[in-house]
Design a protein that fits this description.
This protein is mostly helical. It is about 75% helix and about 0% strand.
């Protein structure tokens, strides 16, 4: 005999809610497909080997974004080298060492406030402090240090949440067999929380790639390619515009074909970052491994 739950008929309100849910999901997918399709249609004609491997030069008659791609890689690497250790270390301290109380709540509150500050304000601060006070000027290093402040909350909060998902039995079991706290964190907690940590780091990379306002004030818009090995190290003290900066400048000059070509490259990078996030999170998820 069927139970009362099986005999219960769905209410009209439930059916209406289901319709709105599926309709909202369909609209979101269609918007994404529409944006990708339109950018691909407008930008695919500008993509070629020269566009991706050479810098724009009136003398050589070339149009390319190779310099901007290299500048973007510079800023990603430098920013993560500074932000990732500080963000992960802060999360470990707050979650594993600091005693719950006003101090921890104050740090978490300030972290949340920091993540909500508009990027243009970070750019203004970076220009005044790193660029003027520390005399770094318009440079890749100034932009990277400014972006470090922007992505620290993202890495810290994601690492905290990842550490909270690790069962307490892992901690008590490791400490119970005589392991030190740091050994337990290094060999058990961090590997177990690695999917969430990697997700935070890769999302931070996505924000670095897509940032423009803060870098316009700090990193400048240079696009010259380094010519010698020594230039690769000295370039961090020079002006360097990322792909988003070049996209903005191309649109302001009315160079729409170039702008949509850069937009297509950025879309491919962002989609790649999202797929990499899913893959790495699944690969390092120890709970799913037998």
């Amino acid at each position: 005999m069927p139970s009362s739950l099986q005999r219960k008929k769905p209410r009209i309100a439930d059916r209406v809610a289901y319709v709105f849910i599926y309709l909202s999901a369909a609209i979101s997918v269609l918007i994404l497909i529409g944006i990708i399709g339109y950018v691909f249609f407008r930008g695919v004609g500008s993509i070629n080997l020269e566009f991706l491997t050479k810098a724009t030069s009136a003398r050589a008659g070339t149009t390319g974004i190779a310099g901007n791609i290299i500048n973007t890689l510079y800023i990603i690497v430098i920013t993560l080298m500074v932000a990732a250790p500080i963000g992960i270390g802060s999360a470990v301290f707050l979650n594993e060492y600091a005693k719950p109380g006003k101090f921890v709540r104050l740090i978490e509150f300030t972290t949340e406030i920091l993540s909500g500050i508009p990027s243009i304000i970070f750019g203004l601060f970076g220009m005044v402090f790193f660029g003027t006070t520390l005399r770094l000027g318009y440079s890749i290093l100034t932009g990277a240090l400014t972006l470090t402040l922007m992505i620290l909350p993202l890495i810290t909060r994601n690492t905290q949440e990842a550490l909270k998902t690790v069962p307490n039995s892992y901690r008590s079991g490791a400490l119970g067999i005589g392991a030190t706290k740091w050994y337990m964190i290094r060999t058990i907690l961090l590997p177990s929380a690695m999917p969430g940590i990697l997700t935070g780091v890769i999302l931070a990379i996505g924000r670095i790639v897509g940032e423009s306002a803060a870098l316009l004030f700090t990193a400048g818009s240079g696009y010259i390619l380094p010519k010698t090995a020594s230039d690769f190290f000295s370039k961090i003290f020079e002006s360097g515009g990322t792909m988003t900066i070049q996209l903005y400048l191309s649109m302001s000059k009315g160079q729409y074909d170039i702008a949509f070509g850069i937009a297509l490259v950025l879309l491919v990078i962002v989609l790649g970052i999202n797929f990499a996030t899913k893959y790495l999170a699944h690969k390092f998820d120890l709970t799913k491994k037998k």
